[in-house]
Amino acid sequence: MGGAGSLSGLLAAANTPTSDSLSAAFLICGADRHVNCVVDGDTFWFQGEKIRVADIDTPELSPPRCEVERIKGEAAKARLLALLNSGKFSLSAGSRDEDKYGRKLRTVTRSGRSLGEELIDERLARRWDGARHPWCD
Known about the structure:
The chain is an alpha+beta fold. It has one domain: CATH 2.40.50.90. The protein is built from 3 helices and 9 strands. Strands 1, 2, 3, 4, 6, 7 and 8 form a 7-stranded mixed β-sheet that branches. A two-stranded antiparallel sheet has the order 5-9. The chain is globular and about 40 Å long. One of its GO terms (molecular function) is endonuclease activity. Residues 35-126 form the TNase-like domain. Keywords: Endonuclease, Hydrolase, Nuclease.
């Protein structure tokens, strides 16, 4: 993916929030689906790039460590899907471009508000502090 109009170029230039101009019809990812789909509560594919929502941590689904984590993880995934499909959004990069898995680290916003913060407010995510914390009691 090269060129000034490519998603990679847009992601690389996304260092500060801009007007909401990105959108797609998102689905749940499947074994062969890696375009405009949601993997879990904090990871999605957008135009061929795997995006990790940078400001949150959600329960694991692959695999969950307990039934409580699975249930909350499925709820977070469904909510992220709904949020991404609710209108135009922006992606902005922080100090790190990618995580150790090669996912693009981006804050996702709509009208200047982090979608991650919405998940936190709904108790489906936690603020990312650099470490994973258990979701099981």
